[in-house]
Amino acid sequence: MVLRLLYILLLINVDLMSAQIFDVENIKLSGDDSKRITLVILSEGYQDSELSQFITDAENFTNSMFNQSPLKEYANYFNVYAIKVPSAESGADHPGTSIEPLETPISPIVPIKTVDTYFNATYDAFGKHRLLYYEIDGNSANNTEAIISTVLANNFPTYDQALIIVNSSEFGGSGGKFPMTYSGFWGANVAVHELGHSLFNLKDEYYPGDDLAAEAINMTQETDQNLVRWKNWLNINDIGIYQYTCATGNCSDWYKPHQNCIMEFIDRPFCSVCKEGIIEKIHSLVSPIDSYTPVSNTVSNSSFPIDFHLNLIKPIPNTLESSWSLNTSNIASNVDDVSVLETDLNAGINTLTAIITDNTQLIKVTNHETIHVYTVTWTIDNSSLGVNDIESDINSLSIVMFPNPANTIANFKIESEKDAKLKVDITSLDGKKVKTVSLSNYTTRQVDISNLSEGIYVANFYANNTLVTSKKLVKQ
């Protein structure tokens, strides 16, 4: 994965020579950790003699999590590991200090007890009976967060997200930096719900309280059907604009996309809006290009034909689409391999580009979110003596176009990891080019379209004269 949480750089005075090292087991291996989202599961409240049960629990949780859409479709984008952290005693604290009424039989009366565990897991955190957290409140949790971070830094510093499974049969869990879940029947669903918060930036679809209410993927104060961020899903799969309900607070000011999502009810699947948000986050963290050949300087004085190959991280079923162009002319689509003949090349420098996008039907992103495009470009130096050299480069682009529909002004933006000549061509449906605009990397360009007739146009985005994606633009 591109972004790594290297806590080892953040911890001060950690003596690595005397650091406590625990056993780490692989639960799910899809590929190179640097090119996957790496989930690390920590044990809490499992004694030494119970760590084999922890591994069984971690395996069962992993199987259950990746049997739920869209994690099921994008399982190849994840690796999962388990760190066996032993506790002196089993379970979690039950201080009995909750200020909310018990919800029997979901929250049965349990004996008040304190147990000696590694991460100090406790129920009744923040005064809520089912809130299972490390420490009883935020102030006490500071030191425990440092302990969790140290364990991760010493045992698996290149993790992307940690999850803590607590050895308890009583329902409970929490989100935050290090989400927790109990090991009982609904534990895997709780884990998915809490990872929805911690990893994918989703909000609760029951009212989370005024302090946690905010504009997000699945939470808004916008009620205009033409402006709400999930407008492309409205009236599909029961997606609407539903008002939150509660007895106190400002819940009536906030709206959610669905009434039966796992972000509200633990026994339900993700709604379509949350699925889309998860997939968009996955694409922002991991490129679907696992590897490619040839890489720079591996081909010299090559004989023809020259073979080019993509190794992609494919969803299940595969929804990736590829487009290949040689010197800006399309030569193949939806294949992982192409062969180039000597007669295909011009004298001098030639450019072969593969463009990869995800065409999953689980995404309806057109206007309000980023479009993720990935490219591999080979520069082929061809002379009368044959191919002298092939250089390769990989790039990730994000493309934004808003608003859509637009009336007088349309905004265009391309973010390219590599320097590139960027532009957008606006064409009518009959193929006539009506406007060409040069773009600067990472800069939003406002384009006056007031002189265009009302109707549908196509915005074609180019990087180094190669078409990377086309989006529909509606002029009102």
TrEMBL record:
It comes from Flavivirga amylovorans. Residues 401-474 form the Secretion system C-terminal sorting domain. It comes from the Bacteria. Keywords: Signal. Gene3D superfamilies: Collagenase (Catalytic Domain). It holds the Pfam family Peptidase_M64. This is M64 family metallopeptidase.
